[in-house]
Amino acid sequence: MLVPFRVPQEDTRAMPTDRLFSRRDVNFLLDEWLDVTELTRRSRYADHDRETFESLIDIAEQIGTEVFAPINRLLDEQEPRMGADGAVIVPVELAEALRRFGESGLIASTFDDELGGGQLPYLVRAMCGAYLAAGSVAAYAYPFLSEANANLIVAHGTPEQIATYAVPIIDGRWFGTMCLSEVQAGSSLGDITTVAVVQDDFSYRLTGSKMWISGGDHELSDNIVHLVLARTPGAPVGVKGISLFIVPRFLPDESGDPGERNDVELAGLNHKMGYRGTTNAVLAFGGGYRTPLGRPGAVGFLVGEVGRGLEIMFSMMNEARIGVGLGAVALGSTGYLHSLEYARTRTQGRPATAKDPSSPQVPIIDHPDVRRMLLAQKSYVEGGLALVLFCARLVDEVRCARSVTEREDAESLLGLLTPIAKSWPSQWCLKANDLAIQIHGGYGYARDFPAEQFYRDNRLNMIHEGTHGVQALDLLGRKILRGGSGLRLLAARVHGAIEDATTLGGEPARHAERLAEQWRSLERAIAVTADEDIAPILANASAGLEAIGHLVVAWIWLEQEVVAENKAGDFYDGKRAAAAYFFDHELPTVSSLLDIIARRDRLTLDLDPAVL
Question: Closest by alpha carbon to 555, among 59, 33, 135?
Fold first, then answer.
């Protein structure tokens, strides 16, 4: 149900065009560092050029600024609620914004030509997504999850499933979700209990419930395509017994249009601290509210093979995790740019060395501690954006690698970096939002300015699509301690950057030596023998995730510093200053984190819960 809520007439939180991302920084990362134009020499992207990429980013920036940002406050104040008839009530402005987004063709941009897509690089699409999330992360969540849903169906579905369920999403007519968690399971997906029973026509009937489903129910599109994890009768316990099913809200009729309502019902809405504009639902599957096709249970269709559900779902989950990191960067970026503008225009106090109390007050950016906070924000936000865009570039390498070896290397490195790309920006771009509130002072804690909403929205990113601790266990337990080529490939890139910076001398060489020293500490900390107890390492995996994340971002800052060397102007001076801040203020913290792992600290492992 759409209700015509309206934005208040006086809104001090309007969004100027330069408050989402620095376009100069975007161009630096895409052109001077990642060489996005090189992708046009790959056959998949040969029909495009740099102007095409620029035009797409222009569209995303325009939608983010002119369509999503103006309703961001409204979506926060008028969060979804259930009406008397059980339908979700959202502002009509959200539907209009998503309609205009759907008409832009951005969802279709990276899909294959034969599916109606534009076959554009994922790197370009990721930057577009960053602008949209910066405008309103809550509004963008609906199409973002839908695009990931369609990507999974295209990768693992049958031709019929692709035509029936993915193409309407690609066209912008339907939305999609991922339904994993349950009340009793949380992140422990091996404990889900939703059941799927095969029928004579090879469809399935699902019964059970799902929790924390973003975009799980609404009236914003003609249909909602749910991707649902469930167990078949007799399936083994744990994750190996999980399969994946397409469960549409409406069953398509013979023409492919939404037909009979499936037995998928909204059981409730979760009300969150932030991200309020995105419905977050409890869904009941096969609860007996309806009997589609005359039989009980929600109608579902198997994706891939029985028992491979979680493995297949990971393709969507990993895309979503990179998207979470991108959303965290977007919120950090707009928070930084808002606080930068505020610091330049807000006058308060005088320099500490001023002797005349009657002298004019100065802009707060003149105070060194405010500049410290701004520089910290800049280092987190621009470092985080570079990290996520590097991962997006790896997605393109996987899609159009020139050899099997190149593809396998890109997949391994991307697999290693995905938990970092999700978690590091979620932690440190949230810190950037925290500093934005501090720079605004009392106004930052008030609703007159958007800094407090940016913080609340960003706080979710350390939780959803796998908590910080889950990502840490994935990184340390699966990607590093179990071997694999990912860390070796990363080390090669890190050492290559160290060599390049050392050759330059000066500050780059000094920073290179600091990074080399900390990298050696990492190698010592994670060195294990075949018979060593790894439980203490896993118990401190979060410290390892933070340390490795800082090392990765330091490497990325070193690469940016190398590119900026010998280039003049405020922009490049700003790059060098942010790099210096990160190496001098942030990288030294890695030592204490790695020390926890190196000495196999057992404090939390052996702690008696009774003392807490």
Answer: 33
